[in-house]
């Protein structure tokens, strides 16, 4: 259990997550701006502005710098002949084991931002669960998809 | 060979009609309810001539319309067997055809409603695996004769037997000779019949009361706009003058009535609860007014769960549910209650007979001692602010809120004591508690994925939570045991790792 799965996701994934963080921060800025405007119109105490600014900076730090970094460092995956192993999580680290026999189908998906960075995410579905590996280089993701679906077809039920 | 087209029994026209009437009840209540509270009440509707009667006329037309629709639906509905498929043609305005290959049919579920019983009819639901897409072939035959239902069953059985050995024309010939022997009714073995005592205990201890109360609440909230609250309010004030005793009595009487209703409903639904088995199905029959028969193929069973709420645990009773894959779209039949309520010593022999390869009382590995505070530590996150706020604002009495701490800790300790797992061969057993105790039995081949979760704090203390997901109905069900030894998590992961590929398997791909 101490040996982690060996593959990391693409370094560009970190960039994309930072970008997501910036978008979230931007939305947050709008909200805070709204509250600040209320503060101005209703003449609430001035020190509140400092609180708003502080909170905004803190969230920007967390969402753009810290969280993506931890998540990226934590994310590991490994596709073996008989099984797929994943490790991820920000506060709670989750290790997932999916046997090849259980894999029903594999999808790759690419949104506009991911496409710009030539990335794709790959979703592995079993009868009951779906597991997503975010941010793989597109060619790598395609290759992995082919590999998993080939392995899943060959894998035999051992029970 | 059997191109004969079958119709449903004429009574299905009537059943269709009743069904649409049931859906019409609420709009009707609204229409007439509004009129009652208008000045003059219902009587005014008749004295106003034409326009006053309009709602009534519309209502009449709608009822007539639904009657005609019911009849047409019945007229249009035909089913027949062709090319190893059950074919159904139906539709009011648009003709729809649905062809279901026999191999796809998982089970036939029978329901006998009050309209079915006197005529010896059944409602048949054809259940298919439904491969994840909603609206996939699934059919319902509103009312057919018992013998017709049996005929469908034998047709399917025949088709399956014919389909299995696809060797060559000779073989097929041979099979067809056999055909007459196969349809003989399979031997059904009755494993369990619920006794009256158990039924009564079930009815009186089930949580159905809450359901009834909430149903009443929902019903009232639906009509809150229509009820003249001011009038009622005045009456309530008057009522209150009689004193709290009467109010309390009224509340108690209300609860009692709700409870009695729920007891009766449970009695009716579970009357003569019987479990029967044949080679590859479990059949569950129950119900007094509406007799239901559900069949569960052994192949589809993913796991078994025994739940005991504290009261029932104390007296050694439990509820057994079977998680089955696929099946109905409705979503409520996925968890099949194998035993609605049963005493442990009666349950075990039956379970052992049903699942001989499973061990139902394994030795459990318990959660480690040092993890106990994890079970209630997180609760302080919401308790402390709550207690703080209450104590601050309602100073002397707010401190009473401290009283919630001991029970919360007690439940945490209790959960810790219950948590455990066992690995025996290919079977995983997990025991855990929310408030009720759940014991979950599953085979390795039915587990879809295993998760091991660790927070920062758990990692520091070498603890981990383990979660196993199986398929249940269209979705998944996850059983989780919290804060186990990290070693235990490793052991479960190792157990779950697929066996290394042997040379023999590699030799024969596909």
UniProtKB/TrEMBL annotation, chain A:
UniProt keyword list: Membrane, Transmembrane, Transmembrane helix
Domain YdbS-like PH: 72-145
Pfam families found in the cross-reference section: bPH_2
Coiled-coil residue spans: none
TM spans (from-to): 21-41, 47-67
Highest taxon of the lineage: Bacteria
InterPro entries xref list: YdbS-like_PH
Protein's name in the database: YdbS-like PH domain-containing protein
Native species: Planococcus salinarum
TrEMBL record, chain B:
One protein family per Pfam: bPH_2
Entry protein name: YdbS-like PH domain-containing protein
Chain segments annotated as transmembrane: 21-38, 50-72, 199-222, 242-269, 374-395
Positions of the YdbS-like PH domain: 74-155, 272-337, 417-496
Organism: Planococcus salinarum
Record has Nucleotide-binding as a keyword: no
InterPro entries in alphabetical order: UCP026631, YdbS-like_PH
Source taxon at top rank: Bacteria
This protein's UniProt keywords: Membrane, Transmembrane, Transmembrane helix
């Amino acid at each position: 259990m101490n040996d982690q799965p060996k593959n990391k996701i693409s370094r560009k994934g970190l960039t994309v997550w930072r970008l997501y963080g910036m978008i979230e921060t931007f939305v947050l800025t709008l909200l805070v701006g709204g509250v600040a405007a209320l503060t101005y119109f209703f003449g609430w105490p001035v020190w509140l502005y400092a609180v708003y600014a502080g909170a905004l900076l803190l969230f920007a730090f967390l969402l753009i710098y810290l969280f993506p970094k931890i998540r990226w460092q934590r994310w590991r995956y490994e596709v073996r002949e008989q099984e797929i192993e994943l490790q991820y999580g920000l506060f709670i680290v989750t290790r997932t084991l999916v046997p090849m026999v259980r894999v029903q189908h594999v999808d790759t998906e690419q949104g506009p931002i991911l496409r710009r960075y030539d990335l794709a995410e790959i979703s592995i579905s079993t009868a009951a669960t779906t597991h997503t590996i975010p941010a793989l280089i597109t060619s790598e993701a395609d290759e992995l998809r082919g590999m998993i679906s080939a392995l899943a077809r060959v894998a035999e039920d051992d029970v | 060979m059997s191109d004969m087209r079958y119709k449903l029994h004429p009574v299905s026209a009537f059943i269709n009609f009743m069904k649409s009437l049931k859906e019409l009840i609420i709009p009707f209540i609204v229409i007439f309810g509004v009129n009652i509270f208008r000045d003059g009440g219902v009587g005014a509707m008749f004295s106003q001539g034409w326009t006053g009667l309009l709602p009534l006329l519309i209502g009449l037309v709608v009822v007539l319309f639904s009657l005609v629709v019911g009849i047409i639906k019945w007229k249009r509905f035909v089913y027949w067997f062709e090319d190893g498929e059950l074919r159904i043609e139906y539709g009011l305005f648009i003709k729809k055809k649905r062809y279901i290959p026999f191999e796809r049919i998982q089970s036939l579920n029978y329901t006998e409603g009050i309209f079915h019983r006197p005529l010896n009819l059944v409602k048949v639901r054809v259940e298919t695996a439904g491969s994840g897409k909603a609206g996939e072939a699934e059919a319902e035959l509103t009312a057919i004769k018992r013998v017709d239902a049996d005929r469908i069953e034998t047709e399917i059985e025949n088709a399956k037997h014919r389909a299995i050995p696809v060797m060559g024309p000779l073989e097929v010939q041979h099979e067809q000779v056999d055909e007459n022997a196969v349809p003989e009714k399979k031997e059904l073995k009755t494993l369990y019949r619920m006794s009256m005592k158990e039924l009564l205990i079930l009815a009186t201890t089930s949580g159905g009361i809450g359901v009834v109360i909430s149903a009443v609440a929902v019903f009232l909230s639906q009509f809150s706009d229509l009820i003249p609250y001011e009038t009622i309010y005045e009456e309530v004030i008057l009522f209150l003058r009689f004193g709290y005793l009467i109010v309390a009595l009224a509340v108690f009487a209300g609860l009692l009535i709700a409870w009695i209703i729920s007891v009766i409903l449970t009695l009716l639904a579970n009357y003569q609860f019987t479990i029967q088995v044949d080679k590859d199905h479990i059949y569950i029959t129950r119900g007094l007014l509406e007799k239901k028969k559900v069949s569960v193929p052994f192949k589809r069973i993913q796991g078994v769960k025994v739940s005991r709420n504290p009261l029932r645990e104390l007296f050694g009773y439990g509820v057994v549910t079977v998680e089955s894959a696929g099946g109905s779209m409705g979503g409520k039949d996925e968890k099949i209650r194998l035993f609605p309520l049963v005493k442990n010593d009666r349950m075990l022999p039956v379970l052992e007979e049903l699942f001989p390869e499973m061990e139902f009382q394994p030795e459990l590995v318990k959660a480690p001692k040092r993890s106990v505070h994890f079970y209630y530590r997180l609760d302080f996150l919401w308790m402390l602010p709550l207690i703080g706020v209450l104590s601050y604002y309602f100073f002397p009495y707010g401190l009473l809120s401290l009283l919630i701490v001991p029970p919360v800790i007690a439940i945490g300790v209790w959960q810790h004591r219950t948590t455990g797992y066992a690995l025996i061969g290919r079977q995983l057993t997990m025991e855990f508690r929310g408030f009720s105790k759940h014991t979950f039995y599953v085979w390795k081949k039915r587990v879809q994925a295993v998760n091991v979760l660790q927070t920062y704090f758990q990692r520091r203390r070498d603890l981990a939570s383990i979660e196993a997901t199986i398929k249940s109905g269209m979705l998944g069900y996850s059983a989780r045991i919290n804060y186990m030894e990290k070693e235990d998590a490793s052991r479960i992961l190792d157990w779950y790792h697929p066996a290394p590929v042997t040379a023999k398997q590699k030799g024969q791909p596909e």
